[in-house]
Amino acid sequence: MTLSADRLAALDAFIVELNAASAGAILPLFRSDHGLEDKAAGKNLPRDTHAAFDPVTEADRGAEAAIRKLIAERFPEHGVIGEEYGEDRPDAEFVWVLDPVDGTRAFISGLPLWTTLIGLRHQGRPVLGSIGQPYLDELYVGSAAGGSRLIARGAEKALRVRPCAVLTDAIIATTDPEACFDGAELGAWRQVRAAAKLARLGCDAYAYAMVAAGTMDMVIEAGLKSWDVEAAIPLIEGAGGVVTDWRGAPIGQHGGQMAIAGDQRVLDEALVALKRSAK
């Protein structure tokens, strides 16, 4: 079934509503009593892994609940996949993929680098995605129809990635290389990092938005879930960028290793190193 432009536009407007609902649940808890829990407590995980501390807050749960409630009211036939409350009809024609607070570690640290990720699949293909940072009043939205935009402080502007022909000119990012990459992956990251002009750490999905906005050039991650990346695909592609796995292939529906780039040329250069550790 073809997704018409009118229907996609209506869903685009709805994703803005969903972000407003999630912001209403999150913002009162930011830099406040957010009810922190550790989902990894009692699991005896190695302390040198990212999963050894797995924080969740009332903001994560409340925001996803608010988003799911609106979807159920407006589109009861749609499926939902969310980090906090699991899967509901994941094989539906339309499926929303949610990470209510991506960057919970930043959230509990009081850093405004966390985001709300909302993606929409149509027949298994990502067609709409948003990255919201409501504390900064920023909402980045991208559509399969082409084009991405920033909605901020009552105004909208189009987003476009910037050209970057070589890695030595690139500003790159990852979340936490020591905790998130295994040995081979860490070696690949270090090789790319050694060639790049500048690297930033700990930005989580906010770095994806910066690639779409043309202020950064590439993000490299591993160990992702579907909700960590699907919202970014329409946003980055709508702004003229690319999203692949570490082999340069489409990332699919299950996360894993990911590279986001504003320019195919800089991605191709990085893939020389990344492919050696691709899974």
UniProtKB/TrEMBL annotation:
Pathway stated in the Swiss-Prot or TrEMBL entry: Amino-acid biosynthesis; L-histidine biosynthesis; L-histidine from 5-phospho-alpha-D-ribose 1-diphosphate: step 8/9
Cofactor dependency: Mg(2+)
Listed InterPro entries: His_9_proposed, Inositol_monoP_metal-BS, Inositol_monophosphatase-like
Family: Belongs to the inositol monophosphatase superfamily.
Catalyzed reactions per annotation: L-histidinol phosphate + H2O = L-histidinol + phosphate
A Gene Ontology biological process term: inositol metabolic process
Pfam families assigned to the protein according to its UniProt record, in alphabetical order: Inositol_P (PF00459)
EC number: 3.1.3.15
Gene that this polypeptide is encoded by: hisN
Species of provenance: Caulobacter radicis
Binding-site residues for Mg(2+), renumbered to this chain: E83, D99, D102, D228
GO molecular function: histidinol-phosphatase activity; inositol monophosphate 1-phosphatase activity; metal ion binding
This protein's name: Histidinol-phosphatase
Gene3D superfamilies linked: 3.40.190.80, Fructose-1,6-Bisphosphatase, subunit A, domain 1
UniProt keyword annotations, A-Z: Amino-acid biosynthesis, Histidine biosynthesis, Hydrolase, Magnesium, Metal-binding
SUPFAM superfamilies: Carbohydrate phosphatase (SSF56655)
